[in-house]
Structure formats: C-alpha cells, structure tokens
Amino acid sequence: xxxxxxxxxxxxxxxxxxxxxxxxxxxxxxxxxxxxxxxxxxxxxxxxxxxxxxxxxxxxxxxxxxxxxxxxxxxxxxxxxxxxxxxxxxxxxxxxxxxxxxxxxxxxxxxxxxxxxxxxxxxxxxxxxxxxxxxxxxxxxxxxxxxxxxxxxxxxxxxxxxxxxxxxxxxxxxxxxxxxxxxxxxxxxxxxxxxxxxxxxxxxxxxxxxxxxxxxxxxxxxxxxxxxxxxxxxxxxxxxxxxxxxxxxxxxxxxxxxxxxxxxxxxxxxxxxxxxxxxxxxxxxxxxxxxxxxxxxxxxxxxxxxxxxxxxxxxxxxxxxxxxxxxxxxxxxxxxxxxxxxxxxxxxxxxxxxxxxxxxxxxxxxxxxxxxxxxxxxxxxxxxxxxxxxxxxxxxxxxxxxxxxxxxxxxxxxxxxxxxxxxxxxxxxxxxxxxxxxxxxxxxxxxxx
Length: 449
Fold this sequence. Notes:
By secondary structure, the protein is α+β, with helices and mostly antiparallel strands. The chain is globular. It has helices spanning 13-25, 42-46, 65-75, 91-99, 109-116, 118-127, 143-153, 176-194, 251-268, 298-305, 309-317, 396-409, 419-426, 429-433, 440-447; strands at 6-9, 29-35, 49-54, 79-81, 103-104, 157-165, 168-173, 199-203, 209-218, 223-235, 238-244, 271-281, 284-291, 334-341, 353-354, 357-359, 366-370, 377-378, 385-393, 411-413. The strands form five sheets. Strands 13-12-9-10-11-14-19-17 form an eight-stranded antiparallel beta sheet, sandwiched between helices. Strands 3-2-1-4-5 form a five-stranded parallel beta sheet. A three-stranded antiparallel beta sheet has the order 7-6-8. Helix 7 crosses helix 8 and helix 12 (396-409) packs antiparallel against helix 13 (419-426). The model has no long low-confidence stretch (mean pLDDT 95). A hairpin with a 2-residue loop joins strand 6 and strand 7 (168-173). Helix content is 35%, strand content 27%. The longest helix is centred in the middle third of the chain and has 19 residues, at 176-194. The chain has three domains: 6-90, Rossmann fold (3-Layer(aba) Sandwich), CATH 3.40.50; 134-203, ATP-grasp fold, A domain (Dna Ligase, domain 1); 209-447, ATP-grasp fold, B domain (D-amino Acid Aminotransferase, Chain A, domain 1, 2-Layer Sandwich), CATH 3.30.470.
C-alpha cells in the first residue's frame, strides 16, 4: 500500500511534535498548523511547512474545520493526524476530510460516534463481551426510573452525563434522599457542558483503580493489545501519573483482560489506536469508556513494548497491516509518566509565562516529551502541559529510583510547575508500594494542604 506523502498535524504542543517525529522517521513530509499564539512553537519550527489557521482561541483555530481544510488544500496534504484533544474524536471532522479525499489518521467515523456516546458505548461493550459496571441500560428519563434502578443495583450510585468527560455531569448519590438532587445537578451540568442533559446510572465503586488497555487494530479484523496502564492517580478526574504495567495486576489477569479487549476490537473491526478504560476493584474489571484516539500517556506503553504507537497509526491509516502479532508483543520492565504542568504545585492555579531556564533530565531509560524550550512563552489559552517525563526501569523499584533522580534534575524556571508535587509523591510510602486508588491523590492533597 502507498504511504502518505504529506501529513497535516491538526494539533499543538508536545503531541504535535511527537507526531512530527514519527512522520519524519517514516520519510513523510509534515505540515504544522498554528494559532497566532503558537507561531514560535517547536513543531512549527521543525515542520516542512506551516500554516497559521487563526487567532488564539481554540474555537477560531485548532477547532476551526474550514481553516484546517483550507490548510490541507493549500499544502496538498493527503492525510491529517489529529493528536489528542481538539478534533481527535470528532466524527464530523473525519467525515468532512473523507469527502475531500483526505485521510483521517484514526478510526472510522462510525466507531468514533459509537464510543463517543457513553450509553451506546456501554451497549456495544456488552455485545462485544467486555465486562461493564452494573447500571441503567440507557438514559434515565425520570426520577421514578432512577429510584428503581438505584434500588436494584444498590447504593451508592453514580449519575453520569451520556455525552460527558472530565468529571463534568458526574454526581454520587449515597442514599435515596440524595438521588433527586444528584440527578438534577448532573443533568444541568451536562446540559451546560455538552448541550445534552441525558444521564445514566451506574454502581458507584468505593475504591477502584483506573486500568486501561491499549489496543491497535487494522480495520480488517486483526487487533492486538499492548498491555495495561494504571492511571489511578487523578485530580478532578484528570490523570496526573500513569504507569505500566499496573502494580495491582498479575500476569494471568493481564492476559485475560487484554485478550478480552483485543477479541472485542477484532469483532468490531477497529482501525488504529484506541484505549479501553476500566475501573478495577476486588479482582473485577468494569468498562467505563473507550477513547478512539492516541492517549496522552501512550509513551509508557511504548517504553515497555518497544512499539511506536504513532507509527502504527499512520501505517494502518495508509492501508498497511499491523507490523506485529500478539505473540510478538512482550512487556519489558516498568515505566512511569508524570505530567509536568505549568501550575502552582499547591493550588494548581495556571502559571503561563516565559520559561527563563529549561533543563530536562537525561540518561538511560529517560524520555521527555515536550515542545517547550528556554525562552518559550507558555500561552494562557490552552492546557497547561509543559511536558511529560517518562522513565523506564528493569522493575518498578529501579523505575522509581530513576524517577526520583530525574525529578531532581528537571529545572523549569520563570513559571511555577508541578515538579515539586511529583518529588513529594515519589517519596510517599503508598506510592512506593503501589497501593493507591482513584481517590488517593485528592485525599493526599487534602491532608497536605
């Protein structure tokens, strides 16, 4: 199959640079797009061509489909890689590109739509044999129905927005008395955030871990899994620290859930990279959602498998088969990723501004995915990610020691960063022992306020 000749990268920051590097290693020409605020970004400097697509607000630039389409036509790009965020899970964008003869490096619009609707995604998961959290079969339309379902599955229950994400439109009801208020609040938040007030009910798990399975599919019925990532350390439902493999799973659990997901993706005829996310408690996995895109934390999987996930995305989208079979995939050692943000490490207030000095760590088993450099100005218009520190070791103990050393080396001056937070976390006994759940970090932050 003919590989793409030129790929437009419809994103910014570290992920745009990550995709650009994969393209260059495949010998594919690159087009960077940027807002006026990102004219000096590293990916813009390194790309073969660049196009300004609008002013700083994302809706006028990175979310502006006509501008992106025009950039493709001006430069002759025959494919678009959306990265993560922005338009990466926008089925309409994929449809529009296809209508103009431009490839979308991602799954089919149909699969994006199915998995983008939480209720439809859960129905599909059940059909594919993926274990799910007990709860409503679809949207809950009345308080009476909500009370019946909650009574059936038992309190506490979680009310979630069907079109939701990032913790918005999500409320817990611990008793029947809580249900009415939680239902109303979740609906109003969902309407405000997503323009859709549909909500559904699930059993609330008290102390689960967040485990996700990385998959790759060729769109023709072949799919593999690349093991799991443990993303349980979260603040306000946003991942902060991710590791692979999970300290909570053994090899048989890993193999069982991985093969369950890979088999489901074969049946679905899924194309490209995707991540199936679970809550895990008392030895049981419960599907929560599927992200039909590249994940922020994909490097930890790359570090333990040696597989370039972005390279595979591009190859599959061009019509090539996967470059490996399940039997080729082995897991080597342990990897941890810390998301270093331009935020106050105590209050988490954003800290945009000029980086006066930047010194990333290095050495064996160390990777820093970042688009910043000394003198770069972090704009206030987008997410606050400075970069991702990813370390690898032969085992988790060595990995933690290497992470501690790297955090001591990492210097970002001129703005505040979350490096001090990770220095504190790496010394905590619970983290050292791998015993934490999705509520652990917020409880820890509360006790260290």
